[in-house]
Predict the structure.
Amino acid sequence: MTDQDDHFDGPRGDRASRKRTGIARRRVIGTPSPATRHLLGDDGAGDRPSAVTKPRELPADLPNPERAKRVERVVALCFTISVLASLAFVASYVIFPIHSIDKVLKSNLGLGLSMTVALLALGVGATIWVRHLMPQVELTEARKPLASPEQDRAAFRETFTEGAEASQFVKRPLVRRTLLAASVALGIAPLVLLRDLGPLPRKQLDYTAWKKGTRLVVFGSNNPITPAEFSTPGGIITVIPEGTAGDLEALAKAAVLIIKFRPEELLPPTVLNWTVDGIVAYSKICTHVGCPAALYEHTTHHILCPCHQSTFDAQRGAKVIFGPAPRALPQLPITIDAAGYLVAQSDFHEPVGPSFWELG
Amino acid sequence: MSNADKALSGVGGYLDDRFRAARPVRSFLKKIFPDHWSFLLGEIALYTFIILLLTGTFLSLFFKPSMTQIVYHGSYTKLNGVRMSEAYASTLGISFDVRGGLLMRQVHHWAAILFLAAIMAHMLRIFFTGAFRKPREINWIIGITLLSLGIIEGFVGYSLPDDLLSGTGLRILEGVLLSIPIIGTYVTFFIFGGQFPGQDIVPRMYVVHILLIPALILALVAAHLFFMFHQKHTQFSGKGHTDRNVVGSPMYPYFMAKTGAWFFFVFAATAGLSTFAQINPIWLFGPYNPAAISAGSQPDFYMGWLEGALRMMPAWQITAWGHTLSLSVFIPALLVFGALMTGLTLYPFLEQWVTGDKREHHVLDRPRNAPTRTAIGVGGVTFYGVLWLLGGNDLIARFFDIQLYWTNWFGRVIIIVGPIIAYFITKRVCLGLQRKDRELLEHGVETGIVLMRPQGEFVEVTRPVSEDSRAVLTTRNEVPQLTAAQTTDENGVPSPAGHGVMGRLRTRLNHVFAEEIPLSDGHGGNGHGGNGHPELPVGADDKRSEPSG
């Protein structure tokens, strides 16, 4: 692309003038018009504004002054509405009380509505202004090629090479290499600071708060439960280890579902020795990504995780029958203690929750 | 001397004395911006980001990023006496005890959703019009980075209030992190400061949410705008629009006024949504408890595709040598995300490799004129769309009374087949539209007028397309054939590069990309009565079925 091409872009069509009225001349921005260039004897690079008879690039006025006057009033009306709405916003802030759900919703309506109107009126006013009050123009600006001219590149290369040579960076590999080594070492050193972000996992994911003899207490009420209190087949409740109600880390692994079956309904691979009177206990933590698998379908005995719909067969050891979970929900061995309450025989025999690298 | 002149020589003079700014600022004011509605999509993203900064700053004055458990006694009486984290309690406080607090929370949330929706729409516009081509590849990569950062930022913000939904989202994050091979367990313990949920995740996410990611986004947005400004905006084809000019209206006063108005419209839309459309009523969800959940839990829309990927993935898991590889989590959550973002990042370079097109492009393609790219794009949109739809498969199953499992199986099949079908349909549609364009050029626009000739013959009256439409219809960016230099070496011998597997692949793909309907079908008709149709002059009233500039 030559320098000339920057200034002229061929004849312009009449498209816009047919569509719009009051259109301005179209000319390459950043160059004087052919006429003025001729007058000034300019070399064509003249970007500077000239005091000599340079024609305007943007028209100052609309062709129809009466219409412009009407539009002006509409725009002013929009802006006035915005002023009033902003005042209404302040008024809403003062007038509407809060501190209860109903009052807050009314306050939200008052504040939100006035804010919306204030913003919308500004937008509408500004749009009418620019579309109907400013004379329409369509101008053309030349694009220069983005690549630098070759001589600029050559000059840059020269400067860069001179600098590199003056710095001795290329000539002295000892300096270069030790500097590189120093930067890498300096960059790696702070990484150790991240070590104390958390403890090492060790075997923490393998165990839960359940121990031999821990009572199963109902999630919510925290009361222990006897088989007699939970005797309706098809019943399901969430239980947690006694004393963990406020311990979210314990609950994140130890939440358990107990489901009541008629004893003959339970089929392998359910471990019957770990059940009491048809009551079977499964981890509630989905083996997919750890959501509580909380939905239960009585007729099919399916446990469904509401997050990603992994489905487990409670009748058959909570094995996976559908969805992305790769492992059965672990079964918690339960029995009853001397007082007749349901207790754990031990912890789970395998890790609960999502799979992880060390699971094995 | 007018007032304006006085102000200029006063304030302007003061500044220019110090910065020598008259010349650069003048050229800034005279900069030309082309007009098209689709250019406003990126502006929505920019303006919602500003809204996010404003409302987010307000919210940070009241939010307590703490997981310390307290017992709530506050305005929302239904939760009186309930144990919850300070984060959740302070979010209740913002909602019920700060005037305008609920409004600001809702504006913040709606703005976040619009932010990501606008980025996605903007990205599709860029893709389908080929605006990512040289010289804008770097700005495209910045855009993809911004999209990824936006998704992470949105997820982190959604997780801060520590309500039941946000805690469930974090639980899923824990499961996803645990699935990373070798280091997953360590990563999880380091991020959560121990076992899930721990005491650290909310304060850590808070600093990420209000400082780290916003600063990165701000810096990248600045670079994005600077490059756009420096390289000048692209334009659609039209009469007089070339790769060597920009046609439009100047920055000052036109673009400033238009974009200012658009800011207010975007803000008004966000405020209007926040007034009338409740979003994230955390008081209804209750505080997070890892043993509790509610059915129908849904993330924000921009996480839906990853949710869908998690849902439809088969339960694959490999256990060997004492280790477990949880493919059913790792693939959908991390590989799908990484694959989509990597694919998007690399696309401009792949297309350039296939077409061998190293020219600068400033006039946008009409999607039909780049049939293969458009078809790939629609295939990608289909892939994303199926994932996104499956993110709500439980709701779909309930609403349409379909078996839940069928939705999953449908998804598993259609995620593979759908994009392929979409590719071929789109390509055919594009080529069909090209044929229609050619017909318009050759036969002109139907006027709906039928003439009877003296001999009793009926003929349809057409008129040639207008000059403007002709410019739009005839602007095509031909895919260059790979030149001899690209497939042969300097001695004219077929080079190994053009010969090996990659070379053959490149040549074949080049043919696929070059497929198009020529503008002329060879019988020389150019719309000026060559086909026995009487014609009306240009500028006649009927404008229908012509493409707009």
